[in-house]
Amino acid sequence: MRTSKRSLAMQASPIRKLVPYANAAKARGTKVYHLNIGQPDIETPKVFMEAVRAADIDVLAYADSNGWEPLRESIAAYYQRMGLPYVTEDVIITNGGSEALQWALLIACDPGEEVLVPEPFYTNYRGFAAPYLVEISPITTYPENGFALPEKAVIESRITKKTRGILLSNPGNPAGVVYTAEEVRMVADIARENDLYIIADEVYREFCYDGKEATSFGTMTDVLDRIIIIDSVSKRFSACGARIGSLTSKNKEVMAAALKLGQARLCVPTLEMIGSKALYDLDPDYFAPIRARYEERRNILVDALQKMDGVLCETPGGAFYAVAKLPVDNAEKFAIWLLTDFELDGKTVMLAPVENFYQTPGMGVNEARVAYVLNSDDLKEAMRVLKAALEAYPGRTA
Amino acid sequence: MRTSKRSLAMQASPIRKLVPYANAAKARGTKVYHLNIGQPDIETPKVFMEAVRAADIDVLAYADSNGWEPLRESIAAYYQRMGLPYVTEDVIITNGGSEALQWALLIACDPGEEVLVPEPFYTNYRGFAAPYLVEISPITTYPENGFALPEKAVIESRITKKTRGILLSNPGNPAGVVYTAEEVRMVADIARENDLYIIADEVYREFCYDGKEATSFGTMTDVLDRIIIIDSVSKRFSACGARIGSLTSKNKEVMAAALKLGQARLCVPTLEMIGSKALYDLDPDYFAPIRARYEERRNILVDALQKMDGVLCETPGGAFYAVAKLPVDNAEKFAIWLLTDFELDGKTVMLAPVENFYQTPGMGVNEARVAYVLNSDDLKEAMRVLKAALEAYPGRTA
Fold first, then answer.
1. Searching chain B, which residue's CA lies closest to the CA of residue A9?
2. A196, A276, A327, B118: most buried by Cβ count inside 10 Å?
């Protein structure tokens, strides 16, 4: 029995495919520093489990298809605290940001239509688009200028009759780029002038450094009917395993379509919604010490990378990733070599090669994503190991 | 901004669309007996919340994409207790049976390909298939012979070059039909001889009455590579709000494709998997008293329906639904009239019209699904109300 062509064509997770090499290294007794994954080490706020434990449930029944109303209200209140214009009926709860992204693509695009996406982009966008026959048309950005968006004319030159929207994350994964207010305004203008949706993945909204803030697309009040905001508790509250996300829009047709998609799969888990409401009800001060902790780590990581010979890494403004251009022939080969052939004092590091975060063939071959979700001491040690590895790697190019 | 044609074409839930009429009736002070929904009133076993409350979680991290291994092991053990040949690596955990059904269709079919489905069928199958451009080709079954499958030649006459599988639920929703061992064998033969998948939705497996058992497709050992079993804790353990399902197959390519789909959306919620493991670890004796309770209700319902003038309802063998052919011009009109224009002693009933459970236009116009998830006293009273309503309805035909 053959499986469908489209299921064969789906990519395996490039982030997870090096795991067997890491497991083998650990089995040999090597300590592996995981710079490859975006799983925060921050404790999930205790209010989550407290709210879940307090739930008094005799029959764990279906919830409403658009989500538990108290959670929708708490998310609307969260937006309003930030000055965004969203109310309860603009919010629908989803199975993680993942489902919200799938729906947004499905609502924006018929089969064969496409969205523009600045590359490198979160590689799972591909897994969301492919089963629905939505094409990703990349807008290439470059490490040399910190992955800033190109000029308006460059982006507009990529628009075709099939283009239905622009999908982008801000702050971004994998490069940690935070778009300027001018870049956000430019994207809004492009959408208005070319009749496009903006699918704004803002799950890292609170993780901006150097005293800056990310400009939410929800502040672009002249194009609110074009905007679909994707959010999630995963990174915001270090609750990746809750799988609670949301899709938010002022566009009534978008919300009607989302509700039908919600009804088709009935509902989202009740307990996780109860816990997530407690997260969104946290005092906004919750974020300040966590942001400070990530900023300290970012500085450790980037300072170390920038001092390594031949490494290019502009300081990223947000999220908890950086993309570094490395003096190696191939970042995936290097990442495997780190796990199979290298150790320093019994230690090595695991990186995420970035080639699969690009849509354009050949891009990103010598780039790797480095996540800073380790504590500062481990991060310093991981940088010492990486520096030694780059010096020892036989495929070094510079 | 227009939304995609395919999102406009998706059906709103026909089960939920009468809800505004019911709310209006309740607002007038009318008691509404809900015969329209499949939400069991049985208490969720306490072990679910006990296991969740006991979970000691500092960081609620991503789970494995194929599911929490102890849950997969418990589901495999559950299958093995029933004599089915499945082991842990044959099982992947999904967001409810809903996601498992979506994946099975996606794995079996490329766009434009189709699955045969006996109609009437669970109407949400349509919502799973449509976004992926999978066509549903109906095999019509009839209330007059208890919705039994037609002869092999009739089914085979519907197979085209585009047909990739047969999707069916056993025991069935909406008609509560339990296929005989011969019918299951026939479907297996058709699949083998015509190179088809069998997508077997067996979520009501334990709910069979009159001392009978449903024959699982997992017992068809000559076609195991063609079989994809869909399961869920929703009905089995009255845990609809947990949204924990599973996809099970001996076909390695199917499981590899399912893992890629799982990686694309990362994972399923951790807490709900912890609770669900406790459910699958329950003593199999758990089901006997619940089955007895449903059987008593079924008898009350069907006895009453069969005594009503002009009503046709063959005794269903499983699940907790029956489809009744009613002496009315249109079952949806009747269902609305029940909520807007009728009451008996301040009470009325809510039915689910079955027309949308058929793919063939014009079928099922005067049929309704009646769920027996109320206690026996309420069910008797609901039948008294329904009988009076059928006598009073202006659109009565017989």
1. B257
2. A276
